């Protein structure tokens, strides 16, 4: 179905700086040459906001090929820190970069706010087959245009501590029922062992709902429907509630020092997470080298292959940029040109089909994971991502308030299902306040 974005009325301008469609783009006219190749030959200056260090490496490589181009890569913070700064610059009408790295879940906020350039005028739509379906669907948000190009992707897999599994005679689970039994067996063998950790994570929860076939968010322009009691949401809530109630999940927040310690000493035995995780193991948990392996994501139905995305980011050209053509030329270099291999070499997981299917990529042995050809598992996951998922056009806000409702379930005040219902109420009210029609 073809969808259209409708400019919201004044009511949409009342929200906070970085959430929803709080400020519509103060767009400048497209400057410079209209043809990316010509713009690259003529040269110019670009500012790129990105937290990923490989972007600077890619910028250096591009400048070597185009000596008349100067690229300033600026790290203004990761995640919400950058989105806040970006929305503030857009609202102010000055200070925004030419390009910005944007995670897939956050991209709708800026696309529907008309802050991003539609790249179809530069032929970006012709690149659809170059990218895996999950990431491409994210940048083609709403089917209205191409609002960026994928830099990487996060198809999910099960990272597990084989040393811990072998010590306790645990088989690698292929279904979520088997995963529950493994969790029970580990915790019974040693109460300090947990199958995983969780204190409430919106990204993980929505990815699990995605894999379970849920489609709780449906967006058609500014018309939004939210159903966090749909079949997939209910399935996840009921299942994960069992692990929480039986104290099988370590009450440790991801990315904390305690989390890294748990991954290192084996007290956290698995992670179901995106394909970008190997590099984090290598740098963050070096003492556990050789202990960890990667397996397909457990399935809701025996024999299934369904997966979901978890994380990953695109790069977008800002509508306010006066050098859109030059910005696009650099973007295509980064996302579908020589820059892709530079990102892979830096630990990134590609979104490009050619790389996902290349023999060299698939055959790479990971010393950290005992010589396993990890990319074979991760690439297969990429091909099996369930289609049809959509994020809210105010998902940044949604994720930021997830623990105010669903997070209560992890401390026993409510259930995950009740938390999802409360989260839904919050999101319906917020969306309406921002000028969306929400049901």
Automatic annotation (TrEMBL):
This protein's UniProt keywords: Signal, Transport
Residues annotated as signal peptide: 1-27
A Pfam family per the record: SBP_bac_1
Keyword Acetylation: no
GO biological process: one example: transmembrane transport
Similarity remark: Belongs to the bacterial solute-binding protein 1 family.
Protein name: Sugar ABC transporter substrate-binding protein
